[in-house]
Amino acid sequence: MVGAIPRGSVSTYGAVARAAGLPGRARMAGRALRESPKEMKLPWHRVVGAGGKIVFPRTTVNHREQARRLRAEGVVVKAGRVSREAIVDLEQF
DNA sequence: GAACTGACTGTAA
DNA sequence: ATTACAGCCAGTT
């Protein structure tokens, strides 16, 4: 689950979907997150695209917000990408 | 039910 | 490194 992503690490949509037993539903994962109210306090910002790249255009607030929060957790965000080291495939959960 | 659409991904030019 | 494109699947139109 997204909430299982350890602080200071990020994962990918595909990985999340797989972990949920839904291979090939990467998009659905993103959709789910989008619909999920923040009251659920899900660390949606710890979910990025494959290779650790942020899916939103860098001009959007979403992108800024995500990058900002990730950096706040110690994740290195550079040019709309997170350090590959910070990415966890979520396979261990 | 066809046609779009999208918080995706991998391959190719 | 950037851009294009084709699979992908579920929800909308």
Walkthrough of the structure:
With 93 residues, the protein is α+β, with helices and mostly antiparallel strands. It has a single domain (2-92), classed as Arc Repressor Mutant, subunit A, CATH 1.10.10.10. The protein is built from three helices and four strands; from the N terminus they run E-H-H-E-H-E-E. The strands form two sheets. It has a two-stranded parallel ribbon with strand order 1-2. A two-stranded antiparallel sheet has the order 3-4. The longest helix is centred in the last third of the chain and has 12 residues, at 61-72. The mean pLDDT is 91. The structure holds a DNA duplex (13 and 13 nucleotides).
Offer a quick outline of the entry.
This protein has 93 residues and is α+β, with helices and mostly antiparallel strands.
Portion in strands: 5-15%
Multimer state: single chain
Looking at CATH, the homologous superfamily is Winged helix-like DNA-binding domain superfamily/Winged helix DNA-binding domain
- Amino-to-carboxy terminus distance: 8 Å
Low-confidence runs of at least 5 consecutive residues: none
Q: Which architecture name does CATH use?
A: Orthogonal Bundle
Class by alpha and beta content = alpha+beta
The tally of beta strands, per DSSP, is: 4
Strand order of the largest sheet: 1-2
The SSE string, one letter per element, is EHHEHEE
Query: What is the average of the pLDDT values?
Result: 91
- Apparent shape: globular
